[in-house]
Amino acid sequence: MAPPPHGEKSTKVKEESTAAVDNRPISTILFIIAMQTEALPLVNKFQLTEDVDSVFPKGVPWVRFYGNYKGLAINIVCPGKDPSLGVDSVGTVSASLVTYASIQALKPDLIINAGTAGGFGAKGASIGDVFLTSEVAFHDRRIPIPVFDIYGVGSRKAFSTPNLLKELNIKAGKLSTGDSLDMSPMDEASIVANDATIKDMEGAAVAYVADLLKVPVIFLKAVTDIVDGDKPTAEEFLQNLAAVTAALDQSTTQVVDFISGKCLPEL
Question: What residue stretches are annotated with the Nucleoside phosphorylase domain (predicted)?
Answer without folding.
Answer: 28-254
